[in-house]
Amino acid sequence: MKNQPDRKILFRSDDIEICLQEDLYPEKFSRSMMIEGKSSFNLLFLLSQNIHLEAQDCGTRFSFKKNQYILHYSPQESTAELWTENLETLHYLQIQINYDYIFHLINPESNKENADILENMIKNNYIFLHKQTPPYMTVEMHMIVKEIVSYSKKGVMQKLFIEAKIIKLLILIFEQFNEKNTVEESPEIPSMIKKFVDENYHENIKVEEIGKRIGINQNKIRKEFKAQYNITVSDYIAELRMLKAKKMIINKKIMIKEIAIECGYEYVQNFTRAFKKKFGISPEKLRNG
C-alpha cells in the first residue's frame, strides 16, 4: 500500500486553513484523509483526474473528474477519504473556512439576498449545479488557485491576500450557481478555453501554454474547441488579434511595432505577414491610405 501523500499547509489562521495534497509519484494508488472541522465550510478543488471520495460519517461516495470542485458545509467534525487508482496522481486543494467568518462576511441579517446565499451554503446547494454533476472550475478560479498555491509572502500580507482571493472565489461560485437556471450550459471545456483566449489573446500564447495554464491536455483543447466553434484555437487567436490591430492601425501616433506587441506578436515581421494575409494589404499601406 502506498503511503499517504504529504499534507502541506499553505496557510493557517484562526478562521482559515488551506492545505495542498499532491502525490506526484504513486506506486500503485494514492490515499489521503481529509478533515472537516466543526461548523466549517470546505472548498475542495480536484486538480487531478479520477479522484474518488468517501465521506466517513455517512458512507457517501463521489467520483470527480479533473478541475471539478465542491463547496461543502460540515456542521460537525468529519473525515473523508480520497484516493486514486492505477498510478494516477492524487492532487487537490482544500480551503477550510470557519462558519463565523462566513457569517460576518455575508451578513445575512442585512437583506434577503445575503440570507439566501448563506442558506444555500448551509444546505450544500453549491455541491451540485448543472445536471446533478459537480461544477467545473472556471478559468478565473484556476488562476486564483494557482496564485494561492504559488504565493510566497508571509504575515499580514499573506493574510490579506488569501482573504481577498477567497472572497473572489466565493463571488465566482455564487455567480455560477445563479446562472444555472437562466442559461443553457455550454460545453465546459470549449467555453473555458474561449474565455481564457478572450482575456489573454494579446499575450504570446500558444495552445501548449493554454493547456498548462488551465490544466487541460492540448490535444483535447484543439479537438473540443474546433468541434464547438468550427474554428481552430490558433485561428481564433489570430482573428481576435487582427480585429484589434485594424482598430489600432488608424491611430498614426502608435508605431506599427507597438501595435504588433500589443496584439501578441513578438516580431513585427510576423505581425505584418499575418495582417497582409488577413486583409490583403500591409499595415503601412492601410494606414497611409
Automatic annotation (TrEMBL):
Keyword Transcription: yes
An MF annotation (GO) of this entry: DNA-binding transcription factor activity
Keyword vocabulary terms for this entry: DNA-binding, Transcription, Transcription regulation
Record keyword Transcription present: yes
One Pfam family matching this protein: HTH_18
Domain called HTH araC/xylS-type: residue spans: 191-289
Protein name (database record): Transcriptional regulator, AraC family
